[in-house]
Every structure is written in structure tokens, then in C-alpha cells.
Amino acid sequence: GFIGSNFIRYWLSDNRRGKIVNLDALTYAGNLENLKDITDDPRYDFVKGDIRDRQLVEQVVFDYGVDRIINFAAESHVDRSIEEPGVFWTTNVLGTQVLIEAAKKSWKEKPDDKYDRAYQEGVTFVQVSTDEVYGDLGDEGSFHEDLPLLPNSPYAASKASADLLIRSYHQTFGMPVNITRCSNNYGPYQFLEKLIPLMIQNSLDDKPLPVYGDGQQIRDWLHVKDHCRALCLVLAEGRKGEIYNIGGQNEKTNLDMVRFILKALDKPASLIQHVRDRPGHDRRYAVDTTKIQKELGFSPAYTLEEGLMDTIRWYQSNQKWAKRVASGDYQAYYQRMYGKSK
Fold first, then answer.
1. What pTM was computed for the model?
2. How many CA atoms lie within 13 A of 26 on its CB side?
3. 63: Cβ–Cβ under 8 A, 6 or more apart, which residues?
4. Which residues are catalytic?
5. CA–CA separation, 223 and 248 (whole Å)
6. What are phi and psi for residue 223, nearest 5 degrees?
7. What does R_g of the chain's alpha carbons equal in angstroms?
8. What are the two backbone dihedrals, phi and then psi, of residue 320, each rounded to the nearest 5 degrees?
9. What are 171-209's pLDDT values in tens digits?
10. Cystine design at 107: which of 84, 123, 192, 341 (Cβ 3.0–4.6 Å)?
């Protein structure tokens, strides 16, 4: 997937880091091409499998002697969660439970003693979540880690449920865990259903750019490489049991992002096509990143303009990848969401 493949590249870019195992079901958004140039790296192994497969997950964790887990695996697109909510619950909640239970069995010093809270040294489980679990935000302020969870979509509800599950394993079993909640990611290898790659690709193809409602929904935009750097900090130095918000400190409306892309590609604003807003569409998200800044020293390296231009150039240079991704299942889904393309 998008964030996971970028994280693997970031991890392997530092020779001091150890081996990494990639367990992926290769659903519609998973793509082996994202990592084809590193498949021969001796520090990297790929295992095709589903995190809902308890036997396989336990086998991978035990056979590889896995001591740290980052759970990127999730159905993540809100529109798809409205169409098929059941898939989101099984992957995002049940799959998370399978994964953390395998970790508990492998890492616990006395796995059969429910009262024992001692774990092997250095082990940790990081649950990658989303700012959408907090719900909608007003015109002012930002989400901080202690707020109640008020998810408004089946996707966000499934992620909130997984977060609470991870917290319960820390409270009940003493498991060394962290939860991270990121704002909207963008960057290389993002599947074309997401806003930024969709708008870039449609602009390059001179197709209409479908914008939900009035386009004034506000998001905080985080470059995926900044996200990967923050995750490594949490993995290495995060206080166990703590939640960390990860944001890019770049609040913009969806329409602002679309207009920037059009201008960068010298395409006309007439390509913008406002479509009916989706049900339960949250108006604004913004995360307070004070905690991760103070405790772990994280701040984003990318400005929004730099990050967007970097992303636009990547898609321009990787049209073969984009065209292959844009075939089959994605095209059928696109037709259901936005109607026939001109």
C-alpha cells in the first residue's frame, strides 16, 4: 500500500536499521510494483497474506522472530466504507486483533499467565490510525490526543474501534503499544482514488476533476515521508501506551489543493466539476502536534508547496505506473462514484 511501501523505503534507506518483513494481502490498493526495485535487498522479505488469517500471522511473527510491528494494514477510503462497511470492520478491527494477539503470544515472557505483564526487551506495537476518529472539527482549534472519539463514517468508526482495542491490550495485558493519528497523507505511490493523485492524473489526462460539494472541506496535509520519519521516532522513543498526533501543519481546503494542481500543470479551472457531496462528510480536521514535537522532537520537513510539487513531478514521471493502477477494479469503482468520464 501507499504509506507502508513508503515506510519500507524509508526504513531501508538507513543501513543501521534491521530486517523488515512486509505482510500484505495485495488488495486493490496493494501493488508489488511499489517496491519492485528493492525485492533483492537481503534486509527485506515479502509475505503475501491477510492479517485476518490467524495461523499465517502467528507463523510470520514467530518464524521471523518479529520484535516490532507497525500496523499499516487497513481499508482506508471513506467512500468505499459507505458502499461496503463490512469489509472495513473485518480488516480494520478483527485483523488488528489477530495481529496484536500474535504479538502478545510471541513477546510475553509467560504467555500462559494472564497476570504476568513482562515482555521481551525492545518489543513494541504501533497502530497507525487517523485524525478522522476525532470526528468533525469547528472553524477553530485542533484535535489533541485526549479528546473523545466521535467518528462519523464507517471507516473512521472501524479505526476508532481498533484504537480502543490496542489501548485495552496495554491496559489489561501491559503490552508495549503506541497509537499514532495522522492527518491526510500525500506523496509518491498513492492510489488514484485519493484526492491529490486523482486530481493530478485527471489533470494530466484533461479529464474533469470531481470535487465534492463546494470543495471547502479543510484538511491538514502531511507528506508521507514526514509521516514515515515520525513513525520511526515513535517506534524508537515513544512512551509506551501513549497516543501521538502526526500532522503537517498545512491546513487547506480541497478546492485550494485542486487549484494548486491545475496551476502547476497549466490546466484550466474549467476542468473542475462539483459533484454531490458524500454522506456524513466532515468539514474540517486539524491535529495538535505539540506532544510529538515536545517529546520526540518531530516537525515536518516539507512545506506544502514543496511537497505538492514533488508529488506532481513524481506522477508525471511515473505514468506507466499510474496507467496500470488506473485499470480494472479502480475504473469500475470510479464510474460508481463519479459517473462516466468525458
1. 0.91
2. 10
3. none
4. 131-132, 155
5. 7
6. -70, 140
7. 20
8. -65, -45
9. 999 999 999 999 999 999 998 888 999 999 999 999 999
10. 123
